[in-house]
Amino acid sequence: MNTAEKKIVRTIAVASGKGGVGKTNITANLAIGLSKLNKKVLVFDADLGLSNIDVILNLATKYNIKHLFNGEKGLKDLIVDGPLGIKVLPASSGIQELTALDEFQRLRLIEEFESYDGGIDYLLIDTSSGISPNVAFFCMAAQDIIIVTSAEPTAMTDAYALIKVLFTKYQEKDFKVLVNNVKDGKEATEVYRRLSTAAERFLSISLDYIGYIPHDDSVRKAVRQQRALMDIYPDCEASKSLMKISEKINNDNNNHIKGTLQFFLGGLLKAKC
Questions:
Q1: How sure is the predictor about 125, in pLDDT bands with cuts at 50, 70 and 90?
Q2: Which of 83, 86, 52, 121 is closest to 234 using CA atoms?
Q3: pTM metric for this prediction
Q4: Nearest to 28 by CA among 17, 41, 19, 38
Q5: Boundaries of every domain in the chain
Q6: What's domain 10-265's architecture?
Q7: 54 within 8 A of 61, measured Cβ to Cβ
């Protein structure tokens, strides 16, 4: 990215305390929602040891992040075209040593992003589940953090645990909550209320509710077909909710003064995980 251009790039980390809550699927579809709003989006599969985005979208990937770290390929060689104009930077699969980046790998990643000139508006980072060093690393580098949870007690407990770690260890105070796979808005609001109450009482921070996605059989159908929900079922209830959330994200212009890609790179460099 040419620093002289000062391109405004929103960097958003999508995280969850627990696996199986639909985080990766949501990330992919939010990217498509933003693309429908005429934004150029790059999705970075930051679950570096377990590739997911390319699997759920059935993308043919010749290279992945391991080829970047071993010096074989550059960032532009890894990025592949996804549905509806989105770009995807795939992770590797079954490479345990990538689950915690060392200093050399961080610097290599920063170097490649600095030289990338893709003209993007949004960088969506699909982190791994849980509270690993990589999760904290990418969350702290991003401008916005979206915490995905569901109504399951374990999902809520683990979402709070992730928020607590990022706050107590890294002093992060701004979190957006997205509730997935619920019966209706009332159930989603109750999930948010319980999380928010705990955060306010024990951490003295407020959480921002950005919406919910209802249970919808179309989601399961899309996953089985390895297609993006908003691509093949754009009129289903879950797609409509995802579109509303995409619009809300795009209309949120607060606290993005430091909006160049260099802000993300600076966060990568400063993150101590």
A1: very high
A2: 83
A3: 0.90
A4: 41
A5: 10-265
A6: 3-Layer(aba) Sandwich (3.40)
A7: yes
